[in-house]
Every structure is written in structure tokens, then in C-alpha cells.
Amino acid sequence: FHAKEQPVLNIQDLWLLSGAMILLGALVFAAELMAYRATSRGAYTSSAEGRVKLAEHIRKLPLGFLMSKDPGELGHTMMNDFTQIENAVSHSLPQLVSGAAVPVLAFAGLAFIDWRVAVAMFAGLPAAVLILWGISGLGRRLGQSHAKARIIQANCLREYLWGMKVIKAYNLRGENFTRLERAFYRFMQESVRLEGVMGPLVLVAVAFIQSGLSLITVVGVYLLLGGEITVPLLAVFLLAGTHVFDPLAVAIMRLPVFKYDAMAGERIVSLLGQPVMTGEEEPPAKHDIRLANVTFGYGENSVLDNVSAAMKEGTLTAIVGPSGSGKSTLLRLIARFYDPQKGEVLFGGSDERAMDPEKLMKKISMVFQDVYLFQDTIGNNIRYGREEATQKEIEAAAREA
After folding, report:
1. Which DSSP state fits 337?
2. Can you tell me the distance from the alpha carbon of 355 to that of 273, in angstroms, rounded to the nearest whole number?
3. Residue 304 pairs with which residues in a beta bridge?
4. What is the Cα 83 distance to its own chain's centre?
5. Helix %, strand %, coil % of the chain (to 5)
6. Distances (CA, A) of 18 to 29, 364, 367
7. Residues 308, 291: contact at Cβ < 8 Å?
8. Beta strand pairing status for 342-347 and 289-298?
9. pLDDT single digits (tens) 56-76
10. pLDDT tens across 224-274, in order?
């Protein structure tokens, strides 16, 4: 319209702008939905595959390493640590990326309009980064202590539940419950300490970030009074500031959580890095067993010292001795649950350390003192010894047993 004419509302242009906004909103929704599904599917799929891979790796580890670890700790790594990784990939990481990308793009765009106001918007960012860098070591120590308390709590709870039949039978409360109670309170204290120490420090960093809105106002009004910028331009900066600082503040709040989750990844990687039992050779056809100057112990406690013995194929050998003399240890060495610290265990005349552990176990059957049944049918529990066994063979084995 001309300067002397009354403004005329162009309905057609208004409808076009409204349509463009609706289309843009639909595109943004579709993109976010695809990103959410891809992120979630990727996180949970990777976690499931990782659990399977870790379980397979644990199966191949020496029994000595597994016995040095509490089952609750391994279970915690298998379940809780992978859950933390799921949370990090599906929630924390996208928020960190978006929270960092939005300010960078906003600064690049607003700097072309007026670099002074753009700099004022992010003047508090260096102080926030410095605070986060300074507390990273403290956060790691608190996180490790918190994770340790959580594992101890899980172990004590598992022990208490497993011993419940004894506790109920003898009407006990005693030491086991006291240990569980202490574990609960310790985990509570570590949780309060982690939140109570890290929370306020992170909030200080967020406050420095959000101070950018106040600095925009101060610098913008100063430039406006000097005639260097216009009111619409100042409004653009203020509007951008309200949309930039929120995702950046969320990213800063999620950063300690992401680092805590990253420690779970370190525990998984550490367990995957444990060396499996080696050996590629096929076990020989002969089944004679011979121990040649075998020495073995648990930690500093020696159990077998320079032991030699021979067990001929087709004969019955009884190993007799008092409790703790090493009978079970000797059998576990034969089955290669451990490798001897000195000497050799020979199967059919060949050193077991050169054999494929899984192929060796196909030659050996063991009946343990403490029986464990898997959560499955009796038939499938018998079939674990030979997966290709028929129903008739399973029934025959049950009758013989």
C-alpha cells in the first residue's frame, strides 16, 4: 500500500502463510517422530544384542574369574548397566546434541544481524563450561561410590531372598537382615550425596547460561537508546533467547546423568575385555587323564601342590580325602574350569590348554554336589547335557538316574 493509503489486509497472503506454518509444523512432527523411533529402536536393539553378546562372553570366561565376582555384580552389569546405556542413547544423548546444536546455529545466525548482542547472549557460557569441567572429577567419584552402593544393596537383597527359607524356618532376623538394612541406608546416603552435591553446582552453571537473557536486554536497550538497533531487531533477539536457553539448560542438566551412564558402559567394556579361555585343537579319541606336577590355589591359598595322578580309560577312580583337601578343585581342573598355575592336565595324552574348551566339555560329564535347576521343564534340564537327545533318551536317562 502507499504511504497515504489505509493498510489493506491481504487475506490470500495470510492464508498462504498459515498453510506454510501448518505444513512446516507437520514436517517437524514427522521428522521428530522418525528420529524418536530410530533412536529408541536403535537403543533397545543394541542393548538386547549387547546383553546376548555379554552372556556369550561370560560363558567362555574361566570359572576362576567368575568365582572371584559376586553373581549380583555380574547380574547388575547385565541388566542395570545396559538399562543405563539404553537411557543414555535414547534420552540423554539426543538432548545433549540438540542442546549444543541449537545455540551454535542461533549464534551463527544472530551474529550476522548484530554480533554485539549475539556475544552478550552467550557471555555466560564460558563460566558454565568452566564449572562443569571443574566438577567432572567430583561427579565421577560420587558416581562410582553410588554405583558400588547400589551393587552391594542388590547383592545383600539377593542373599537375603535366597536364604529366606532358613530365615523363616528358624524365625531369624539377625545379622543377614542387619546387613541388608545397612546396605539400603548406605545406598540412600550415597543417592542423597550425589544429588545434594552435584545438583546445586549444576544449577549454578545453568544460572550462568540463563543470564544471557538479562545481558541481551541490557545490551539491547543500550544499543536501542543509541539508535544502533531497532525495536523489532531487539524483539528478535529476545524471542531467540527464550527458545535457545531452555534446550541448553536441559542439556547441561543431563550432562552429569550422561557421564554417570557412561560409567556403566565402562563396566560393560571392562567385562567384555576379560580374556576368554583359549584353545582350538580337537580333543583326542583316547580318554586317559593324567595330572603332571599340578599346582593350583585360590589367591594366596594353595590347594594342590605338585600333584601327579593317572586315571586310566575304562576304569573307576575314587578321589578320597577330608573336606577342603582339593577333591572338587581337582575335578574342576580336569573339566578345565580352571587352568593349573603350574604343571599340566593331560587328556588322552594332550595338554588341555591347547584344546577347544567347548569341545573338551563334550567329552566330560559332571554331577555337582549342589544341584541347580533352570527355570524350564525337567526334560529340558536333562537335555542341557546333550541338546540333540530324543524324548526316549531323556526318559531313559531319568530312569537310570
Report:
1. S
2. 22
3. 296
4. 6
5. 70, 10, 25
6. 16, 77, 77
7. yes
8. antiparallel
9. 888 888 877 777 777 777 877
10. 888 787 888 878 777 777 777 777 888 888 888 888 888 888 888 888 888
